[in-house]
Amino acid sequence: MKKLSVLFAAVVMLLSVGVKAQKVASLDVATILNMMPEKKKADDQLEAYSKAKQAEIQKAGESTQAIFQKYQEEAPKQTAEVNKTREAELQKMQADLQAKSAAAQKDVADKTNTTFAPIEAKFNAAVEKVAKANGWDFIFDANNPSLIYKTGPDATSLVRKELGL
After folding, report:
1. Considering the entire predicted model, what is its pTM?
2. Which positions carry the signal peptide feature in this UniProt record (predicted)?
3. How far apart are CA 136 and CA 134, in angstroms?
4. Strand partners, 26
5. Alpha helix positions (H), the chain
6. Engineering a disulfide at 126: which of 23, 26, 75, 162 sits with its beta carbon 3.0 to 4.6 angstroms away?
7. Using CA atoms, how far apart are residues 51 and 79, in angstroms rounded to an integer?
8. What are phi and psi of 148, to 5 degrees?
9. Cβ-based burial of 154 (10 A; exposed 0-12, middle 13-18, buried ≥19)
10. Which CATH number fits domain 17-163: 3.90.180.10, 3.10.310.20, 3.30.910.20, 3.40.190.10?
11. Distance between CA atoms of 133 and 162, rounded to whole angstroms?
12. What is the pLDDT of residues 5-15, one digit of tens each?
């Protein structure tokens, strides 16, 4: 057991001698992104697009609801066969509505990804340029709750300057 602990200590010492000190900085990602005019414009476009999709789904839902109420009121006056046909029709309409809702959610997600891709690329390029210029090996998001200790330089102002904000 004693030999094992001596061997472990020797390995740790050898590794610590060979490890280069890493330069680390923090960055307030949310603040910078919210300052970018491109992001503000993208947020507005996506909100309008999302509201339009929601309005489409709501309109379709109201139409389905109106038909359902009509069929419910007329059900006692109809034959069992007609009611069964109407029930199948309503189930199909409900399935179509769910499919439209899922498609709308996918469309909004796709539009979000497409819209934010160039913004993300511009941001990442600025961060990389600032990190290389200052010799930083790592930059952590200052807003990350798993970051429990923060010291060293803050890259926020340099990235903002690089982006012209």
Report:
1. 0.68
2. 1-21
3. 6
4. 140, 154
5. 2-18, 29-35, 37-74, 80-134, 156-163
6. 162
7. 41
8. -105, -15
9. middle
10. 3.30.910.20
11. 11
12. 544 544 444 44
From residue 130, alpha-carbon distances to 32, 36, 117, 120, 142 in Å are 14, 17, 20, 15, 16
Please give the pLDDT value at position 10.
47
How many other C-beta atoms are found inside a 10 Å radius of the C-beta of residue 79?
8
Dist CA 34 CA 68 (whole Å): 45
32 phi, psi to nearest 5 deg: -65, -45
* Domains of the chain by residue range: 17-163
- C-alpha–C-alpha distance, residues 72 and 91, integer Å: 14
- Nearest-angstrom CA–CA distance, 115 and 69: 41
Can you list the residues of the chain whose pLDDT is less than 50?
4, 6-7, 9-18, 148-149
* Residue found by looking up tokens 């359902």 in the block: 68
Helix (H, G, I), strand (E, B) or coil at 77: helix
